[in-house]
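Quick one before lunch.
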Amino acid sequence: MTYTRQCHPSARQDLLRGPSQANNAQTLENPHCLRKGAPPFMGLRYLTTKEQFHEFLEAKGQEKPSQDSEAVDPAGNDLAEPEAKRIRLEDGQTEDGQAEEAAEPGEQLQAQKRARGQNKCRPHVKPTHYDKNKLCPSLVQESAAKCFYGDRCRFLHDVGHYLETKPADLGPSCVLFETFGRCPYGVTCRFAGAHLGPEGQNLVREGLVQAPPVRNGLDKALQQQLRKRKIHFKHAEQALRQLSRGPLPGPTPEATVPEGREAEGAPGQDNCDSQLAPQEPDTVGPPSGPLRTFGPLTDEDVVRLRPREKRRLDISGKLYLAPLTTCGNLPFRRICKRFGADVTCGEMAVCTNLLQGQTSEWALLKRHPCEDIFGVQLEGAFPDTMTKCAELLNRTIEVDFVDINVGCPIDLVFKKGGGCALMNRLAKFQQIVRGMNQVLDVPLTVKLRTGVQERVNLAHRLLPDLRDWGAALVTLHGRSREQRYTKLADWQYIEQCVAAASPMPLFGNGDILSYEDANRALQTGVAGVMIARGALLKPWLFTEIKEQRHWDISSSERLDILRDFTHYGLEHWGSDTQGVEKTRRFLLEWLSFLCRYVPLGLLERLPQRINERPPYYLGRNYLETLMASQKAADWIRISEMLLGPVPPNFVFLPKHKANAYK
Ligand SMILES: Cc1cc2nc3c(=O)[nH]c(=O)nc-3n(C[C@H](O)[C@H](O)[C@H](O)COP(=O)(O)O)c2cc1C
Ligand SMILES: [Zn+2]
Ligand SMILES: [Zn+2]
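Model of the zinc ion complex:
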């Protein structure tokens, strides 16, 4: 058994002790914990077997049409109390700290192997797949001009014909129309019945509300310039030249701001001024040859020494929602903000893709107005691309900080020398941090792991360097690359690193799922905590931490949260078929984590711990049980309650393999 069952109060200190000692504590100090008399994970009356669990869901699911959420009585305890069954305790911890389904002991190793990493052979469904008969975009907006493509346009131009083949509406009301008084998707909206007039015209309601602007979009002109490689990175090149000559002595990097920069004000307005100008031979940009020097300093160095404050980042004591690829999308972050997350960060973006103007990569930088302390996270392996990317973003988007992901364990990134491989490439790492820091007006932060290998901690040695190179803050995930999620995060090591980083603030990250976990984490002296899977399992965790309480949230309240997510999703990705299906996919990715939450009211021993695999149980009502299912088919059913039936031939395999329960 690889996961800890903490039964004795002293075992509660496990989080601080680190993984190996925690395991010892469990097996040596409290051997009885693993035996019969140990306090059970949850009330025996809720326990069931895998077979009964799925039989129950199937039988009930047939009784109650899954599309009608009202048919599920969230409050009604219509459930005959299940017979108490033995808990089968299985191990098989995987990448995301999830326990892979492995019925037979012999299958366990295999299952574990299979579960490592991501699902690489996921079916790729093109967004257009769903809509064969697409209406020409020129007809979606009433005010739109004639179709630019004329006869060559492959879309439908006859609205009547389009409506004949359009699938039925997914619901009676359109969240965009309800919220803003006008739905920009018009007839293509999958809830269009709510806002189409008798002649099929798109209705507009009195008292139209402006949709709050989502910031950090990619300007079309800039995209063109990026694609044609017409952007000249004046400041990045300057910084890189300087770095290749060796770092300058002088003021701390926090105080150095590149020449001609405004320390205040929104940088997002002008995309192509002289700082980041389209390259026009002879006119813009510095001479490409070596710079004239006066002794050790250049002209430009002198300008740099002007004491101008870099913007500061003061987030000590704040709750930081971790950057989460796929799951930490803008609609999900809105949910977490509502529950009390203070700091949010975009999903990791790849510098080279941003520099090429890729739309999908730029989408990762988008910021909702509710995200008042917001950063973006970048990945890259080379000082050149990363510094250029930093300059590009400095001029084009509005953020409070830029983070470098030096914790990324993914093979693809690691093999190129990026992610946590940088922890072993000190010279490049230094150039990246110094270079980026020099061209950014906002603070630069770094996310680290303990190291690459399990027993070779590197972070404590890097922290003083990072502080000297000008990093404003570091977040440390208390696990190595090799370790992935197989063991508890090493908070004892994080504590050691707090001292090594001082006075630079260090945020701690790993395994926080309750306010007690957060309190223990804060006792290590970290400036604050970052929360990842905890937020996916229970976004209300932020409230629990702020209010220092446990929240026995009901299944209907949880469904309401999911409904809000779909509303935010439709707002963000659109309410046409493509937007609905995108919203559904991201909901399903989230559900693959959410199912691991065990309702508080069922627990015999508080609080739930992130590394414990819950046994099969029946919830206090049908919906609670359905939400505990680890089957993709059941997640799809939940999605159908909120977004209507899935399109024909729908397949879903979660991105994170560890969630692919069969
Ligand atoms: C689904 C998922 C996606 C993640 N994506 C990122 C990412 O884009 N950038 C990053 O630095 N870490 C990423 N992580 C790691 C988390 O930010 C965090 O460091 C790690 O999960 C440990 O925290 P936890 O124990 O609170 O989950 C991801 C983790 C998960 C589970
Ligand atoms: Zn057309
Ligand atoms: Zn609509």
